[in-house]
Amino acid sequence: MHFVKKLRDLSDGKPVGFKLCIGRKSEFFAICKAMIATNIYPDFITIDGGEGGTGAAPQEFSNSVGMPLRDGVAFVYDVLLGFDLKKHIKIIASGKVSTGFDIVKNIALGADMCSAARGMMFALGCIQALECNSNTCPTGVATQDPSLMKGLVVEDKKVRVKNFHNQTVASAVELLGAAGLKEFSQLTRAYINRRVSANVIQNYRETYPYVPAGALLKTPYPSRFELGMALSTPDSFLPTDYMVTEVDYQNANPYHE
């Protein structure tokens, strides 16, 4: 948090934030506790999904590391709201955001905006050659080699990217209108339905129930956050569960029945 303040001071007050993919939940609780302790808040937090990732990423990371974007956005929104920090911080969703519905569902979950890379890269000509880190991208998208760069014809590709962007945003606006809404700020989790089993459909509000603002500033905490609160400290986001016994796990919240 002190580094966030340093960057903001050095940039004459420009917006400062950070990007992360949620892994160990207690680490994000720790960051939020540090915000409370220091009274320093980032302007934005970008949540990347485990399904995101560059072609330069190790295969095991792309396949197995990190919380999916849907769960990550809902979790971060709920924790920020629980600490009464959401009013200070914008959430940006990033991770396979390629369609109008991707935009709508992430905003419904709690994002303030979305950023997209994969869809834009496809519009630009990416063929997923997975050579982003080798300087040998055959389409000229991810290389500094002049002989390969000339394969990307800017005059043509810029039109394709512009068209993809405009049509994607237009489809999101159409979906908003279909829901009878005028502003994206009106979207809530109740508007998105998802099949969770062969014969059960839930809306996102049922799957990811909201928490009251400030619910993590006093005990008893919402039960699903008790363990994360017990394992986190504002002094560090390093893992602490290796110091916690099974008894501590069971008694993470003294108000728990």
Overview in brief:
With 257 residues, the chain is an alpha/beta fold. The chain has helices spanning 2-10, 25-38, 59-64, 69-82, 100-109, 118-124, 146-149, 154-178, 204-207, 226-231, 246-250; strands spanning 17-20, 44-48, 90-94, 113-115, 193-197, 200-203.
Fold and architecture overview:
By secondary structure, the protein is of the alpha/beta class. The protein has eleven helices and six strands. The chain has helices at residues 2-10, 25-38, 59-64, 69-82, 100-109, 118-124, 146-149, 154-178, 204-207, 226-231, 246-250, and strands spanning 17-20, 44-48, 90-94, 113-115, 193-197, 200-203. Helix 5 links the parallel strand 3 (90-94) and strand 4. It is globular. The mean pLDDT is 90.
Secondary structural class: alpha/beta
Strand order of the largest sheet: 1-2-3-4
Overall pLDDT: 90
Our count of helices gives: 11
Distance between the termini: 35 Å
Shape: globular
Tell me the β content.
Answer: 5-15%
Helix/strand order: HEHEHHEHEHHHEEHHH
Using only C-alpha atoms, the radius of gyration works out to 21 Å
Helix content: 40-55%
